[in-house]
């Protein structure tokens, strides 16, 4: 009887690289997650830095624009400087036997509203004045106005041409008629009768704390040249405390 063959025992199965790698995967996954988290945190930090930089740039741009706007508004609201009379106006004043430009007060602060209105010089060109200036219109008056209101108007950079009525020994009606269009055709300029001009004065050109006076003999051409020169020198200028508030300034 034949003997049965003995079966050889099978060698144990070898573990391949897959098994080895899977065995070590449990230790590698936490490292990868940590690296991903670090990268994510770095990206988030960089995003926040970029956002802060962008916000800072926007703030600087807005601040720069604001400064430019403020400077622009300041420039636009700033009154021009007063200037001397033109040579033509000075020649007309001399030919008409007018005075030069006089500054009556050594100190003429603005903003002094309410009585007492104790003017020592007439027509008054500075000092305490009515809280309300003259209305913007009319520019040419046929009757006197309240002097405290007129002084307030001068404070706003206006020029007022005062005249003695022809019937009272003042300037001629032709001169009055010639000065009217200059009042209406220029910024912040008025033509107003003033019966109580000092003796010998028939025409007075006034701005804030400035006055130039002329006799009744002034001619039309002399008056027109002198009037335009005085207006060009003082209307809407920093000679007045509030020189940009006049009509049309």
What would your notes on this structure say?
It is a single chain. A hairpin with a 2-residue loop joins strand 3 and strand 4 (210-214). The protein has a 4-stranded mixed sheet. Helix 2 (87-95) packs across helix 5 and helix 4 packs parallel to helix 5. The protein contains 5 helices and 4 strands. It folds into 2 domains: 33-77; 87-234, no CATH class. The protein is α+β, with helices and mostly antiparallel strands and 249 residues long.
What are the defining features of this structure?
8% strand, rod-shaped, 249 residues, 43% helix, 4 strands, alpha+beta, 5 helices, single chain
How many distinct domains? 2
Could you tell me the mean pLDDT? 85
Strand content: 5-15%
Number of helices: 5
Order of strands, widest sheet: 2-1-3-4
Q: How many strand elements?
A: 4
- Rg from Cα: 44 Å
Q: Largest sheet at a glance? A: 4 strands, mixed
Order of helices and strands: HHHEHEEEH
Assign the structural class, choosing from mainly alpha, mainly beta, alpha/beta, alpha+beta, or little secondary structure: alpha+beta
Span of the ends, CA to CA: 140 Å
- Pick out the low-confidence regions: 16-26, 64-76
From the spread of the alpha carbons, the general shape counts as rod-shaped
């Amino acid at each position: 009887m034949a003997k049965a063959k003995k079966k050889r025992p099978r060698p144990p199965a070898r573990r391949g690289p897959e098994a080895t790698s899977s065995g070590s995967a449990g230790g590698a996954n936490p490292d990868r997650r940590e690296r991903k988290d670090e990268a994510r945190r770095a990206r988030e930090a960089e995003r926040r830095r970029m956002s802060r930089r962008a916000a800072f740039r926007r703030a600087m741009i807005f601040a720069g624009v604001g400064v430019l706007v403020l400077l622009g508004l300041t420039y636009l609201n700033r009154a021009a400087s007063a200037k001397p009379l033109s040579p033509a106006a000075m020649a007309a004043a001399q030919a008409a036997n007018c005075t030069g430009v006089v500054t009556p007060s050594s100190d003429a602060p603005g903003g002094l509203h309410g009585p007492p209105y104790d003017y020592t010089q007439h027509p008054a060109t500075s000092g305490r004045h009515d809280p309300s200036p003259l209305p913007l219109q009319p520019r040419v008056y046929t009757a006197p106005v309240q002097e405290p209101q007129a002084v307030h108007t001068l404070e706003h950079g206006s020029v007022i041409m005062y005249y003695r009525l022809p019937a009272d020994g003042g300037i001629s009606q032709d001169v009055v008629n010639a000065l009217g269009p200059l009042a209406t055709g220029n910024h912040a300029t008025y033509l107003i009768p003033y019966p109580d001009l000092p003796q010998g004065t028939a025409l007075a050109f006034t701005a804030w704390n400035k006055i130039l006076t002329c006799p009744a003999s002034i001619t039309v051409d002399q008056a027109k040249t002198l009037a335009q020169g005085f207006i060009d020198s003082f209307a809407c200028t920093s000679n007045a405390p509030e020189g940009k508030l006049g009509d049309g300034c």
